[in-house]
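Recall from the previous chapter that SMILES is a line notation for molecules. Here it describes NAP.
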Amino acid sequence: MNVGIIGYGSMGKMLADKFALIGESVYVSTRSEEKLKTAPAALHVCSSNKEAAQASDIVFVCVRPVDMEDVIRDIDGVMKEDSLLVSLNGSISFERIGEWTHRKASKVIPSVTAEIDRSQTLVTHNKSVTDEDKESLKKLLTHIGNVIELPENEMGMGSELVSCMPGFIASMFDVVCESAKKHTSIPDEQIVKMVLNTMSATGDLMLRNDLSFEDVVTRVATKGGITEEGTKVIYEHFPSTADELFEKTLEKRRKTAQWKK
Ligand SMILES: NC(=O)c1ccc[n+]([C@@H]2O[C@H](COP(=O)([O-])OP(=O)(O)OC[C@H]3O[C@@H](n4cnc5c(N)ncnc54)[C@H](OP(=O)(O)O)[C@@H]3O)[C@@H](O)[C@H]2O)c1
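With both inputs in hand, we obtain:
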């Protein structure tokens, strides 16, 4: 199968390089051509989006929302009759995409954890996508982690939970580490490694032993103990921050969805 990647930025590069590694024929194009000078030799570098789209059975459009309309309108006329168009953006609706093309279209939201083959990739499809298309797309995406199919109206919150979450987790623990630094002479780098390894191991422990967050809190925060002092602070003050976080991100998502040139 020929895979097209348009936009060789953070997501496009990650997908193109991964798909080439597993032996797919990958056709790439991007706006600033110099970005492709250091691309792996296995990629077919194209001189235009049209060239990449024309060659491909699945075309991933990996550009920002503001650039999506121009790219989709540009390639619509040259894509093969039966090719599948894939938007990497969760906010732009199939209704909007339908104003630019009447093709079979899916939306795919990977997360940066795809780099270590542990993405929780979200997918949703428009009505024209066949079961066979869904299966081929899923098979391809399974190489970068788990695939989760959601209805289109849940892609927003779904994206916050898997695709934005690495950023939320990193910023939360950045704050925690900055605070810890004020109270210790342990070197900064060591603090970060201690927290990161504990965070990662806690997630693995919960997944492996099917533990809930409450289970972990109960196991670590013994009644009247030191951990309990800390968890009390988190349960008292953090809910309002978490509420504000989702209110702000979902509002931004609504505005992005309505954006017009
Ligand atoms: N980053 C994430 O974790 C993530 C996760 C899931 C989904 N997404 C979605 O994936 C999409 C891409 O995000 P990103 O983080 O990869 O953005 P990015 O790093 O800015 O990459 C976008 C790339 O598209 C290129 N581009 C822009 N206009 C183009 C055009 N007309 N033709 C060809 N290439 C063009 C840009 O070229 P220049 O280098 O010239 O700017 C840039 O290389 C977005 O819609 C985003 O919402 C991102």
